[in-house]
Write a structure and sequence with these properties.
The chain is an all-alpha fold. It has a single domain, classed as Growth Hormone, Chain: A (Up-down Bundle). About 80% of the residues lie in helices and about 0% in strands. The chain has 18 helices and no strands. It has helices spanning about 5-10, 25-60, 60-70, 75-90, 95-100, 100-115, 120-145, 150-175, 180-205, 210-215, 230-260, 270-295, 300-320, 325-345, 345-355, 360-385, 390-410, 420-430. It is globular.
Length: about 425
Amino acid sequence: MNRPDNASARSETVEGEAPEIITRQQWKWSALAGMASYLDAGSIVALGAGLALFQAYLGLTSAAVGALAAIGPNAIGCALGSVIGGRLGDKLGRKRIYQYDLLVYAAGILCIALAVNVGMLFAGTFVVGVAVGADVPTSLALVGEIAPAKARGKLLGLTQVAWSIGPVIVLLMAAALAPLELLGIRIVFLHLFVAAIVTWALRQGLAESARWKTASQTGRTLVRKLFSGANLWALLWTASIYLFWGLAAGTAGIFYPYIIRTLNAGDQATSVAVTGLGFLASILFITTIFMRFSDRDYATRKRLWGVGAVAQTAAFGLFLVLPFSIPVIIANIVLFALGGALAGEAFYKVFSQELFPTLLRGTAQGLTFGIARTILGIWSFFVPMLADAGIRPVAALLMSFLAISGVIGFWFMPDTSGKTLEQIEAERGS
C-alpha cells in the first residue's frame, strides 16, 4: 500500500540531486496531469466548432449562443469548478480531486454529444465546465510539486502542449467530419468522453503529492493569508496577467470558427482548419522555445515575455488595418500563437506554482483562474453581438487586453527561476 507514496517521494527533487534532471516517472505523471489541459481546451474548441451547427439545429439566438459559451468550460462553469476544486485540493489533497472529477466531466460531455434539446446542451456544457475547472488547479499543483527546481517550466510547458494538442485533434476531426454536419460534432464530443475515461483509469496509479503530504502534517494554512503581504501581491499579479490574456485567448478559442463563418471569411471546414493551425503553431513554439528556455534565468524569462507580448498585441492589430480574410487570419493566428507561448498561460501556470505556499497553491490558482474565466464568461455573452458589427470592435478590445497583460507581466515579473518551492517561499515570507 505504501509503494505509490514512496514513489511520490522519490519523484521530488531531493538534496544532492541535479535540479534540472527529469525522471521518466515525472514525465509520465506530468503527462497524465496535463490531460486536464487537453480536456479543458478540447471541450472549449469542440463547443466552438459546433456553435453554429447547434445554433441552426436548436434555433438559438445570438444571445443564446453567447450564454452557452458563458456557462461552459471557457468561462463561468469552469470558474466555479476551479475555485471549489482548488480549495478542496489544498484541504483534502490533490489525489482526491483529480481521481474523480473526470467521471463528472465524462457525464457532461456525453450529455452534449447526445443533446437533442436546449436543456441537454446547456446542462452538459455547464457540468463539463465545473468538472474541468476543478481538475486544472489540482493537476497543475501536482506537476509543480513534483518538478525539479530547474525544470519546472519544462514540465508545466508539457501541460500547455497538451492544451494545444486537444484542440488540434478536435479541429482535425471536426474538419474531416464537416460533411456530416452536426453528427460530426457529436462524434468529436464522444472522442472527449473516451479520452476522459481512459485518463481517469490511468490516473488511478498516481500517488499523492509528497510536498502536500509534508505540508498538511504541519498544520493548516488559513485562506486569509492569501490576502496580505507577498501572497496578495502574487494573487493580484497572476490574476491580472491571466485575466487580460485569457480574454483574448478565450475569444479566439471558442469564437474563431463562429466568427469566420458568420462574417463569410470561410466555410465550416475552412474555419476549423485555419483555427487548428494556431494550435499547431503553439505546440511548435512551446516545445522549441518555452520548454527549452523558460527555466534558464530571470533575464531570459523577461526577454521571452517581452517578445511574446509584442507579438500577440500586434496579432490583433492586423485586423484594424487589413481586411478580414483567410491570409490575414492566418497571420493573426501564428503571431498570437507565438505570443501566447511566451507571454501567456504557460508562464501563468509556472508562476502560479512558484509564488504560493503548498497549502494555498491550489486555492490561489483556483481563485485567479476562476476570476479570469468568470469575466471571460461575461465577455463571451457579448462577443457574438459585437462580431455582428464586424471584426474591428472585437479586435481593438482584444489588442488592448493583451497590451495590459504584457505590460503588467513584464514590469512586475518576480525572480523565481531555478529556485526550489521551499526557497521561494522562504524568500517571500509567504
